[in-house]
Predict the structure.
Amino acid sequence: MNEILKGGEFLIKEISADAIFIPEEFDEEQNMMFQTAHDFTDKSVFPVIDQLDTHDRELLDKLMKEAGEIGLLGVSIPEEYDGFGQSFLTSMRVVEAIGKGFSFSVAFSAHTGISTLPILYFGNEEQKKKYIPKLASGEHIGAYCLTEPDAGSDANSGKTKATLSADGTHYILNGVKMWITNGGIADTLTVFAKIDDDKNLSAFIVERSWDGIEVAPDEEKMGIQGSSTTQIFFTDVKVPVENLLGERNNGFKIALYILNFGRIKLAGATVGASKNIIDETVRYANERKQFGQYLASFPALKYKMAEQVIRTFVNESLTYRISRDIETATAALKDSGMDKDKAIVEGIRLFGIEASISKVFGSEALDYVVDEAVQIYGGMGYSQETQVEKAYRDSRINRIFEGTNEINRLVIIGELLKRGMKGEIDLLTPAKQVAKDLLEKPAPENNLDYFAEKKKTIANLKKSVLLTAGAAMKKYQAALMQEQELLFNFANMIIDLYASESLLLRVEKLGKKYDENKLAPYKDMLDVFVYDAAFRIYKEGVDAINTFAEGDELKGLLMGVKRFTKTAGVNTVAARRRIADKLIEDGKYNF
Ligand SMILES: Cc1cc2nc3c(=O)[nH]c(=O)nc-3n(C[C@H](O)[C@H](O)[C@H](O)COP(=O)(O)OP(=O)(O)OC[C@H]3O[C@@H](n4cnc5c(N)ncnc54)[C@H](O)[C@@H]3O)c2cc1C
């Protein structure tokens, strides 16, 4: 059996291709679930997507219930609560299929993810029995109420208050929540509030039908108009004491744990959305002519389409790699005797760094895809007649919710350093080793085969992160957490490194299944992405070093980061053209 990796350990360990899951390994049942969700999006959501965007709450509610009827809302809910009891990975596959469904996908994800899971994983048996079957069937729609007008990224600073009634039977809830997805259609609300003068939030299950709850009209937003986003006002709402979710003061922890799910699921949705928009793009490029030629024949546009494909393929590679790693960690925790709900929450917590990587990478990959889709459509891309215009507006929110990408970047590096300092991950020994390696002449390694060469590049990229972040850590100690520009340099290096490695391991694994001919476009993607990533990592590293080092240290670090980010030359023009040619010939994303 493969060694079970801890989250964050990718930075200090060599990972084998056999240790990761690739989407080509989905089994028949998982593909069937995918197909069901895919067909639902095509047949039930797409035909009404423009109507949905007119804030038609009834239609949204109807679609959610339809999704519930065919089992899509209960994919990973245990059978004892009327779900399908499928694995986390299967639920991710369904999220991908729904992900192409524009604003419906946001309503779906908010319901099945951040709204249902707090009760499923932190509720007691009575709470689960009472609420989960209804959420699984769609009889009740869920909402997650954390954000307030004055408490966004700093969510624990919320002012919503819960006070125990004199007879001790219920809490009296007062406050305002803002930007609540599904606000206009939700029946079951997970509301975060502070009991009396507690420092931390507590969580409550609140029913919309109770007195004192007022839901504002839908916000007019830049995009995802079809998902209902509202303010919710709570005035002297009586919440029975048995509806406290988890322990008092533990709500902020619940909120953060659940956001880990939200983040990786968001990445899954961006995979589906990206593939759909690439299909739209190549269809248009294959139909429209300018200067007597199809748009698809222009090399400048081939560059963009190839890049859409590469970023989407990488996004998919890392998202499913993480999903399986979470499953594996969860299974190991269960085997060690941990309660099954705790095990999944802990499994995903262990991969919180990776979940944040996927959130940032996925949302930024999709933004690239939709932006260049609009560009390739030209003037038509600016018209509301086209799906790419909607996709462009809808995509933007992904960098804002589930923790902004700034907050997620800070989580990536902050959590890594925290685990390093706690000794959960040994960052110190490899960081010291890298500093030592620098003093020695690199041993010549001739005749490495294709994958060995790439692995060496990835191993060196890891060294470049350890070298620069290690030196900054030594210099600033705990004060490093205040140097946000530096933290962003390191987070960006780590994201590119993790993305490169995920792509490499997938392509290497595919190499065992495919002949050279079939493997060729994937190797092209690997060549282009790693080549670009190494340059980006170099730039981030140099920027960081110039901030804090001087004299001999500066010289040594600059030399080191240059050495560790060196890559073989790649004809990226030819490689991108070949990737685009396959896309154009297939007429759709078929990678
Ligand atoms: C359409 C939509 C749907 C949403 N759905 C939900 C939902 O269902 N439930 C829910 O509870 N919330 C929801 N939200 C809220 C969302 O999670 C918040 O908008 C988000 O967390 C950011 O908070 P904020 O808007 O208050 O921005 P702020 O926190 O004010 O941030 C503003 C800017 O400052 C940056 N910033 C903040 N703190 C730091 C820092 N420490 N260091 C560096 N930069 C920082 C941010 O990255 C951002 O760029 C939704 C929001 C929208 C727009």
About this structure: The domain at 23-141 is CATH 1.10.540.10 (Butyryl-Coa Dehydrogenase, subunit A; domain 1). Residues 110, 144-147, 152-153, 179-181, 221, 229, 397, 400-401, 404, 406-407, 484 surround flavin-adenine dinucleotide (CB under 6 Å). The first strand starts at residue 142 and ends at 145.
